[in-house]
Write a structure and sequence with these properties.
By secondary structure, the protein is of the alpha+beta class. The protein folds into four domains: about 25-125, Beta-Lactamase; about 135-265, Beta-Lactamase (2-Layer Sandwich), CATH 3.30.450; about 280-380, PAS domain (Beta-Lactamase), CATH 3.30.450; about 390-515, PAS domain (Beta-Lactamase). Helix content is about 35%, strand content about 35%. The protein has 14 helices and 21 strands. Strands 7-6-11-10-9-8 form a six-stranded antiparallel sheet. A five-stranded antiparallel sheet has the order 2-1-5-4-3, sandwiched between helices. A hairpin with a 2-residue loop joins strand 6 and strand 7 (about 185-190). Helix 1 packs antiparallel against helix 11 and helix 4 packs across helix 5 (about 165-170). The chain is elongated and about 120 Å long.
């Protein structure tokens, strides 16, 4: 019947949104002003605290006294949370504290919502630590480029004034220095030749393009649109090894004709280090291990070492696959590593009684060959247990719904008026006697509140407080209802809870009997 289908759909929707709430990567907090009422699992993970150490506390308890920039946390919270309570959604950055006192930056979206007539706040919190690190790296990189540009301009000016004065520092420069004209290298310092595996006499007089064998250059104008150009190349050394170079180049005049003067930096080690760091920073799981291409462990974090049952120092330089027999890794992980996929591989796996969300990253060299492997695992045992609990609860709800349907069928044959409501009085069922007595069809009353059927003179309380304060005992009293024409109907009402969840009534049955005059 339509009512039953709607109720089953509501139950499925509730389970669906509860799963979304607890599966969200962002922390979600329900707040009464600044007091935390509830939080999802991501909130526990983000703050490093179990839920019972988060709920009931003020957000200020989890924040430093002052925010970045010196602003007082309490004053900022009063202003932002008050605005949200009055219906103005807020989005801002906020510094929180983990359980060990470590500060971490977040981005918060703050909105209000109503439960009945009570106003609450919802805070969606995203950890932006990695983003802040990226911003810091960009500023540092820009600073390096600006410093290099300034240095190159100083070198260019000095060279224009006197070549002899500048020759000694150029010859001993830790970066490669060259001058090319018409595409031919006219000058190269020892470091330039060394980068390509040659001595200087093998470089001077050759085409500059002889040394750029792999990729087309990436050219980036300087920020102030000056003549300075930055380029990156993949080049091959004399012995065949591939190196990645960063070149800063500017025009000059050499012996009365245009030429290009440049500095070359070997950024191969930096790029490899960045790739390694990037692989680790991209991981959002608890346990991490880095191996070479043959599976030899290079480093592990403390969480992985703890799961493997050995100190991190003992695991270094051992073979990862040897941990299969002790449960340190699974056969599935070992098999996935052998595939050498250029893309990250993610999967769920069970090791003993624990469940993990595992991600495998390949860290490649300049030619795309895999050099290292990063494995990141997040323990999702609690999530899996919660999923089973939700499924069990859903099955129980289905059973209760079937009981409710049978109960409704019995009520249809009663001579008294019968109504079934949800926990706050929303009508979900009326029997045939009710429809006739109140001259209403089911679709005219379903999802309305029972109190909406009361006559103005009614004294029997059926508002929200009736359901909030309800105890296990049945209730009875005189109810003055009204039919579709507004005519007063005196009835004796008896109320009884019929379904419970966590020992609280979720559904009620109301039986209305004619009041004998």
């Amino acid at each position: 019947m339509p009512v039953r289908q709607d109720n089953e759909q509501n139950i499925r929707s509730l389970a669906f949104f509860e799963t979304l709430y607890n599966s969200s990567a962002d922390a979600i907090l329900a707040l009464d002003t600044t007091t935390i009422l509830d939080g999802n699992r991501s909130a526990e993970f983000m703050f490093g605290r179990p839920k019972n150490e988060i709920t009931g506390r003020s957000v200020l308890d989890l924040s430093p006294e002052f925010q970045p920039g010196g602003k007082n946390s309490k004053e900022m919270a009063d202003r932002l949370f008050t605005a949200a309570l009055f219906g103005e959604p807020q989005s801002f950055e906020w510094m929180y504290l983990r359980a060990d006192g470590t500060p971490f930056p977040t981005e918060i979206s703050l909105t209000r919502f109503l439960v009945g007539e009570t106003v609450y706040l919802q805070a969606s919190i995203r950890d932006i630590t990695l983003r802040k690190l990226d911003e810091d790296e960009l500023r540092e990189a820009y600073g390096r480029i600006s410093a290099a540009e300034k240095e190159l301009r100083l070198q260019y000016t000095a060279l224009a004034e006197t070549e002899e004065m500048f020759r000694n520092p150029v010859e001993n420069s830790p970066v490669g220095v060259y001058l090319q004209q018409d595409g031919i290298i006219r000058y190269a310092n020892p470091r330039f030749a060394e980068m390509f595996g040659y001595v200087r006499d093998e470089v001077v007089g050759r085409s500059f393009d002889d040394f750029i064998r792999i990729s087309n250059p990436v050219t980036t104008p300087s920020p102030d649109r000056s003549s300075l150009q930055r380029r990156e190349f993949l080049a091959r050394r004399k012995g065949g090894a591939v190196v990645e170079l960063e070149i800063f180049e500017a025009p000059m005049e050499y012996r009365g004709r245009p030429a290009l003067y440049g500095n070359v930096v070997d950024i191969t080690p930096r790029r490899r280090a960045e790739a390694t760091i990037r692989g680790l920073l991209n991981a959002t799981r608890d346990e991490a291990v880095l191996t070479d291409n043959d599976g030899r462990i290079l480093t592990v974090n403390n969480a992985f070492a703890s799961g493997a049952g050995k100190p991190a120092a003992e695991l270094a330089n051992t073979i990862l696959y040897d941990l299969i027999r002790t449960g340190g890794i699974s056969m599935r992980t070992a098999d996935e590593m052998q595939k050498k996929s250029p893309e990250p591989i993610s999967f769920e796996e069970q090791i003993g009684e624990r469940w993990f969300d595992t991600t495998i990253y390949s860290i490649n060299d300049a030619e795309g060959n895999r050099e290292q492997v990063g494995i990141f695992r997040h323990d999702i045992t609690r999530l899996k247990n919660a999923e089973r609990e939700v499924l069990a609860a859903n099955e129980q709800l289905v059973v209760e719904k079937e009981r409710l349907s049978l109960f409704a069928a019995a009520l249809d044959n009663m001579r008294d008026c019968a109504v079934i409501t949800k926990s706050m009085g929303q009508i979900i069922y009326v029997n045939e006697t009710f429809k006739k007595r109140f001259m209403l069809q089911a679709d005219e009353v379903l999802e309305k509140k029972l109190k909406d059927l009361a006559h103005d003179e009614n004294q029997f309380e059926l508002g929200d407080n009736f359901f909030f304060d309800y105890r296990d005992s049945d209730r009875q009293g005189l109810f003055l209802g009204k039919n579709s024409y507004g005519v007063k109907i005196p009835l004796i009402v008896t109320c009884k809870p019929i379904l419970y969840s966590n020992r609280k009534p979720t559904h009620f049955v109301f039986v209305f009997r004619e009041k004998m005059s």
